[in-house]
Automatic annotation (TrEMBL):
Signal peptide: none annotated. This is SUF system Fe-S cluster assembly protein. Pfam families: FeS_assembly_P (PF01883). SUPFAM superfamilies: Fe-S cluster assembly (FSCA) domain-like. The lineage of its organism: Bacteria, Pseudomonadati, Bacteroidota, Flavobacteriia, Flavobacteriales. NCBIfam families: SUF_assoc. Residues 12-85 form the MIP18 family-like domain. It comes from the Bacteria.
C-alpha cells in the first residue's frame, strides 16, 4: 500500500514537471495538450511515460521526447525514465484539456 501512495505522489510531481514542457508550435504545455497518455511508476521509481506527438512528422519528434526524459530523470526521486512514443490512438483535439482549448480560443 505504501508503494501505491508513494507512486501517486511521485506521479503528481512528474505531471508538474511535464506541465513545464511546451510544444514549440502551440502555447500550451504537453500535458494539457493531451500528449501524455500514461505515466507509470515502478517499485524502483523507474518511470515509463507513454506519449504521442501532434503529428508523426512533428518538427520536435526527436527533441521533445528527449526533453521529457531528461527533465523527469533530473528529479531526485526518479531512478530512470523511458519515454515511448505511440500514435495509437492518434492525437486529436479532443484529447486537449478544457484549459488548453480555452487558451487556444477553441471554447
Amino acid at each position: 500500500m505504501e508503494h501505491a501512495k508513494n507512486s501517486e505522489v511521485l506521479g503528481e510531481k512528474i505531471v508538474t514537471v511535464l506541465k513545464t514542457i511546451y510544444d514549440p508550435e502551440i502555447p500550451v504545455d504537453i500535458y494539457e495538450l493531451g500528449l501524455i497518455y500514461d505515466v507509470m511508476v515502478s517499485t524502483d521509481n523507474e518511470i515509463k511515460i507513454l506519449m504521442t506527438l501532434t503529428t508523426p512528422n512533428c518538427p520536435v519528434a526527436e527533441s521533445l521526447p528527449m526533453e521529457v526524459e531528461e527533465k523527469v530523470k533530473s528529479m531526485d526521486e526518479v531512478t530512470d525514465c523511458e519515454v515511448e512514443i505511440t500514435f495509437d490512438p492518434p492525437w486529436s483535439q479532443e484529447l486537449m484539456s478544457e484549459e488548453a482549448k480555452l487558451e487556444l480560443g477553441m471554447l
